[in-house]
Design brief:
Helices cover 33% and strands 25% of the residues. By secondary structure, the protein is of the alpha+beta class. It folds into two domains: 346 residues, no CATH class; 37 residues, no CATH class. The two termini are 43 Å apart.
């Protein structure tokens, strides 16, 4: 009996090691080195007052036995801009022959990172040439450092066993609470303990033959906004990565933001609370590593494409001009932010630059028959993760991430869109990269889900 068990163990262990996986990781500090404005929280328009925690870019490169390669980059930033991904993708294709479908960028969505601005329209709003030059220099530095760590991670490839596991973490809570007031927003940004959540903590570990870890990739679906300080900081996701790297010396810990567009961490707005949430998440990661892990075998299969998202009809120039003629402060439903959006839309209409649809990126990756990874763009609401995990349930584990490749806007589900509120409609007026012509049409959820299924075929 012992002989049989030993043979079985060696066989299973041999399957994991003979899968032919290689992995390499690298990281770089991306904390601004000159004064810059903080991103996020529209009511906090200030220059950062120093560094409380360094911000990082991290890369995990994975290669299968057939030479197929996939690189995931995580960023302690408020967004992944399309311009940043496009520039990095062009660099790594030219330098490392890495195709577009083999590159994924994800941001932690910390609101204690620097503003990211692109294009003449965004800089024209500032009317501040020094601020513009600092943004441009940071953008160039960011692209260069991401490109460098991708090359470093690819150069660090070494034999590993890949395993998947998951646990749960409970500090995220739905933040859409139905209002009992007859006017104003129909849903408040407030804790809703009865709203949908996704407490799953997926974990992908790359382990050397000596049992040391090259990297730990982990995810969670929750806004990374549990603090509101005027300093650079990675928030709870930064704390979690630090705790994991301290517990596993020599390991690179990468945080992958999930579909947390309508989720907040509670309680919040205190560094001590942020650290507690980070410790809670790091504990969940270690719990996952001690639970039953799934060895990943097979090879990589990747796909990347866009799907057309339509908007509600764009107001005419005449309609916008009539609205802008309303005296400021006379209509409580016509805020200064709505007026600014109308002005920007009117200018773009006159220039012929206002878009009428958006090409929304979607990326899917299969790790053999053991793990299906779906990368959605934008500040994706939790309904997408919950729905896809139901529809794709089977032999393979399913990992759904938001905030990937192009954080263009909040991406509400049809349910959220019909309910209204900040994630559904109001938030879109603040976006300038891109400038949206109106709310998204009700078809967006079915088009996104449909494209995911199409790519997985």
């Amino acid at each position: 009996m012992k002989t049989i068990l030993l043979a079985l163990f060696l066989t299973l262990h041999g399957v994991a090691l003979s899968a032919g996986w290689k992995a390499g990781a690298a990281k770089a500090t991306i904390t601004p080195t000159e004064p810059m404005y903080l991103a996020g929280f529209a009511n906090r328009v200030v220059i950062a007052e120093g560094t409380a925690m360094d911000l990082h870019a991290k890369a995990l490169a994975i290669e299968d036995a057939e030479g197929g390669r996939f690189v995931m980059v995580t960023l302690d930033l408020v967004e992944v801009a399309k311009q940043t991904r496009d520039a990095v993708a062009a660099n790594v294709k030219a330098q490392f022959h890495l195709p577009n479908e083999s590159l994924l960028l994800n941001c932690s969505h910390t609101h204690c990172g620097p503003e990211l601005r692109f294009g003449d329209a965004e800089f024209a709003e500032l009317n501040d040439p020094v601020r513009k030059e600092r943004c441009l220099r940071y953008n160039a530095m960011l692209v260069a450092k991401i490109t460098h760590i991708i090359g470093e991670a690819l150069g660090n490839l070494e034999p590993v066993t890949l395993t998947y596991a998951h646990a749960r973490c409970g500090f995220a809570m739905n933040r859409r609470l139905k209002s009992d007031k007859p006017t104003g927003e129909p849903y408040l940004n407030s804790p809703n303990p009865d709203g949908p959540v996704d407490h799953d903590v997926p974990v992908l570990a790359a382990e050397r033959p000596d049992k040391s870890l090259v990297a730990i990739l982990f995810g969670y679906a929750c806004h990374n906004t549990t603090m509101n300080i005027k300093q650079w900081h990675g928030d709870y996701a930064g704390h979690a990565q630090r705790f994991i790297e301290e517990a596993h010396p020599g390991t690179v810990a990468l945080f992958m933001m999930g579909c947390g567009g309508d989720q907040n961490g509670y309680p919040r707005f205190d560094d001590l609370l942020s650290a507690r949430h980070g410790q809670s998440l790091a504990t969940a990661v270690d719990a996952a590593l001690q639970a039953r892990t799934r060895p990943i075998t097979g090879s990589l299969r990747m796909a990347y494409d866009t799907v057309r998202l339509d908007y509600e009809p764009t107001p005419s120039m005449e309609d916008l001009q009539k609205r802008l003629a309303i005296p400021t402060g006379t209509d409580p439903n016509y805020s200064i932010y709505m007026r600014d959006w109308d002005q920007r839309r009117l200018t773009a209409l006159k220039q012929g630059t206002l878009i009428d649809h958006y090409d929304y990126p979607i990326q899917v990756v299969r790790f053999g028959a053991d793990l299906t990874f779906v990368a959605l763009s934008g500040e994706t609401c939790v309904d997408y993760s919950l729905r896809l995990k139901r529809e794709l349930a089977g032999e393979a584990a399913v990992w759904v991430a938001g905030y990937c490749n192009d954080v263009l806007a909040y991406i509400p589900s049809k349910r959220v869109l019909l309910e209204g509120g900040y994630e559904a409609k109001t938030s879109i007026i603040y976006w300038s990269n891109p400038l949206h012509p109106n709310w998204f049409a009700e078809s967006l959820e079915e088009r996104i889900i449909g494209k995911v299924h199409e790519l997985l075929k």
